[in-house]
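Bench notes, afternoon.
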Amino acid sequence: MNKKLKTAIKIILFVGFGIAIFMLVYKDFDFGNFFDTMSAIKWGWLIPAALISLLSHISRARRWQLLLETTGEKPRFTNTFFAVLNAYFANLAIPRLGEVTRCALISRYEKQDFSKVLGTVVSERLLDLMLVAILTVVAFATQANVFGDFVAQHPEIKDNLAKIFSPTTITILAVVGIAGLCLLIVIAKGKLDRFKFCQKISKFIKDFWTGILCLKNVNHKAGVIFHTLYFLMLYFCFFAFEELSGLNVLAALMLFVAGSFGMIVPSPNGMGSYHFMIIQTLIIYGIPSETGASFALVAHGLQTLLVIVFGLFATILIPVVNKDK
């Protein structure tokens, strides 16, 4: 099959999947009422939210620059910044396309080995995974009372949780988990390399380990971690809605964690899945589903708009700032 045709099919499937999820989530939503109530939204609060978003991109670019320096090179910050923005923009078309795009840009304009640059992205993804795990624990620990109150008000949820986390289920999950871990160890040692699929898993595990070693050698570790302020963007968005203005910064952290899991689904910028996670989390805080759906539309719309604007900005400027190369 022609390469361009395959790419086109991927984009169509990717976007179509996102639209399908979005329509499923919003099938009962009154868009007419949403447009009528938009006049009540305090749009001025979206300005600091947008600035926080830009600051988080700057922080992520600086973090990647620090990781790239572990390879012995010193890339310019402007290039890492524009490459990161370009990556977000490219991911709107195809999932993970941005990771390849930004590696290619740094490899081209900084004259670095592509495989080494890609290795730092593996490290960055590993760091993201660890940070999300830590933030998930922190969010649930600090908001345990909110979830406790919600479950107390809905006894049927408590009964369902008791069934899901019964001793039998936990035992089965533990056995499956241990068996899966043992299988991964065998694959990582190359014992099953005769199978192509196992070769890919083995390579992924080795890249994963390389990423861990890269993190160990990085300087300014505090600077590497300091990009998690992105959840403050959601906090400022709260004040744009009268019904949400009473929620605190820990609620924003909880939404950030929920939205992060929504972004895992392969749809354009988490379309549909992100909205679903935000709506369901806000319901736990006592926010009506209609209000939660409106908030998800505004918050996700702002993020997507910024990705497009910043991405176009970076795409145009990166060859300009590197015209000497």
